[in-house]
Specification:
The chain is globular. The chain contains 11 helices and no strands. It has helices at 3-31, 49-72, 75-78, 84-115, 117-121, 125-150, 153-167, 173-176, 182-197, 205-214, 224-230. With 231 residues, it is mainly α. It is 74% helix and 0% strand. The chain binds protoporphyrin IX containing FE.
Length: 231
């Protein structure tokens, strides 16, 4: 890849993407907090929602925990507990399990949305586009596991070195992964694109739901057994 393009995409784009992400998140929370919801489609059709939703959400949550710890833990810190080879084996195993779970889940959710007429008619084009984008991103992530498994330990370690150079504003960050596979690069660029559009999509519910859950009010939990006994 051309040096200029490589630098643009892997040294500067991460910062552009995160700036747009935080700008969008803050302005949306301040300007229109009432619009922050995932607009659940469960009331339109329950079929596939439970399986698809659970597989996707548990899978993607673990994948994100894996990305965060895997990319941002400095080498000398994780070396206190394991070698780079062990860390790679762990990433391949956990990444495969949870990556495939997220992929299967989102595929079920996409099929459900397209096959059910009521659901299809109530879906905006951007709802379907977002699911397809996530499907492609997760698919590329899974393919990248095969590349990780087949390449050298140094090449795997460089992914973490790159991410840590990015967050510490090192101007040579992009150079670290210049020679890496196109699959990784596509995965990273699409991932950064997802961060850029994140504030303007349903994905915003990820940030507000966990907080809103703990501060919710006005709900009354009625347990059937308890109600029967007390009446
Ligand atoms: C810019 C942000 C991102 C970066 C730098 C990144 C980086 C990576 C890397 C290096 C791998 C390979 C790990 C390995 O082989 O062990 C990977 C795998 C994966 N990525 Fe990403 N990724 C990003 C965003 C995303 C997003 C937004 C999603 C999903 C919506 C995603 C889903 C996956 C999945 C499912 C895998 C395979 C399972 C795993 O290894 O956890 N990634 N990613």
């Amino acid at each position: 890849m051309d040096n200029f393009i490589n630098n643009l995409l892997f040294t500067y784009l991460p910062h552009i993407s995160m700036t747009l992400f935080w700008f969008g998140v803050i302005t949306r929370i301040v300007k229109s907090p009432q619009s922050l919801q995932a607009e659940s489609s469960q009331f339109l059709s329950k079929k596939g929602q439970r399986w698809g939703g659970n597989l996707f959400h548990y899978g993607i949550l673990m994948v994100f925990i894996g990305h965060f710890t895997g990319l941002f833990t400095p080498e000398n810190l994780y070396h206190m507990m394991m070698t780079t080879a062990t860390k790679r084996a762990l990433a391949i195993t956990m990444g495969s399990i949870f990556g495939v779970s997220a992929f299967a889940g989102i595929l079920i959710l996409l099929i459900r949305r397209l096959k059910n007429k009521r659901l299809r008619l109530n879906s905006k084009p951007q709802d379907i586009l977002l699911i397809v984008l996530l499907l492609v991103e997760i698919g590329l992530g899974i393919v990248s596991i095969f590349i990780t498994a087949g390449s050298s330990i140094e090449s795997y370690a460089e992914l973490g070195i790159w991410a840590q150079k990015v967050i510490t504003f090192q101007p040579d960050a992009g150079a670290v992964i210049a020679g890496h596979s196109l699959i990784y690069k596509l995965h990273i660029v699409i991932g950064l694109f997802i961060f850029m559009i994140f504030p303007y999509t349903k994905l915003m519910h990820m940030l507000v739901m966990p907080v809103a859950y703990f501060f919710r009010s006005g709900y009354q939990l009625v347990r059937r057994g308890f109600t029967k006994r007390s009446t």
